[in-house]
Every structure is written in C-alpha cells, then in structure tokens.
Amino acid sequence: MLENWIDPVAIAIVFAGTVAATLLRCGVADMRVTLAALRGTFEPAFDVAKAKAELSKQIREIADDGFFRAAPHHFGDVEFDSITDIMIGQRSIESIHGAHRRYKQQRLDKAQRAARTFESAAELAPVLGLAGTLFALGQAPGATPQGESLVDAVAIAVVTTLYGLLAANFLFAPIAAAIARRSRQEERDRDAVLEWLAEGVRKAGSAAPVENAPQVAA
Description:
The protein is an all-alpha fold. It has 6 helices and no strands.
C-alpha cells in the first residue's frame, strides 16, 4: 500500500522543480544565504548564560584595572568580540550600541531573505505539483479495456498534487517560520545581553581606579 504513495518521478518534478523555480525567482545570492540559515537551524542557539559568563570576566577586569589597562576578552562570538574591541579601544560604553545595531541589521537582513526564499518555495511547490499532475495525465495512453493505464496515470497525478501540498505546508512554510522565529528569539536575547553588559560596565567604571574612571562614557 505504501509503495502506491511513493513515486520517484513525482518527487523529482515537485522538489527539483520547486528548487529550480525558487532559484530563478530569488537568485543565487539569496539561495546561498538561505542554505546558511538552514544550516544554522541545526546549530546551537545563542547561549545567554555563556555570553554573560564570558562577558562578566571583561566587566571584572574593567572594575579592577579601568579601561586603560583592561584588555578585550574574546570568547568566539563575532559580535561581542567586536563590541569589546570597540569598547576597550574607544573607552566608551555608548560606542557599543552602534556596533550592535549594525550586526543586528545584518542578521535580520539574512534571516528575512532566507525566510522569503522558503516562503517562495512554499508558494511554488503546489504549482509544481499541479504541473506534475498535468504531466502525468498528458502521458496517459488512454483507457484499456480494464482501464489500468488510465487509472495508473490518474494515481500518479494525484500523488504529485499531494507532494506539492505536503512540501508547501509541511516543509517549506514551517522552515520559513522556524528561521523567522529563531531570528526573533536571538535578537531578543542579544539585546538583553547587551543591556546587561552596558549596565555592568557602567558600574565597573564607577568602581575602577580614580585615574581611569574619567575615561568611561556615562
């Protein structure tokens, strides 16, 4: 019974056709961004606890030595490594917000492009399913006395339509939503960590040695 619902030709028409049509609609650049975003959904999410634990070392060093002698503390996060470089280099808390906004906009742009690409695929999959249906019916040789050839062609046509609907609603659309949902959560978490860092550095700057404290931007 299960083999009646598995047709390699229908799968190729729907999935390969959808990928090709999406590539033509969205372009190579967006497809690359989309593949990177898809890989990212299988990677660990931004770890708020780890980020705070690592950044707390930077805050302690600023509290102990002030901005003059504190060295940037890196822990492998591209944005926060860059932010600490800027913060220590410019001896300013406020400078980190501009850098954060640039990184945030870049991430949001990539997430939106990836989500749009999968949404386009979700729109195109049913169309390719219909195309597969028409292709299967067009290949029907006509009814035999038993009607078997026509019945087989109709069965393939129905399966192809089903593949298009399933691909759109249970694969491409959910992936688009997952990418958008993960992006929103990451930005909320990063915003929270940035505010926590800024507040911690302000307090650390106030507790720093007197000769270093005037360099801290309030």
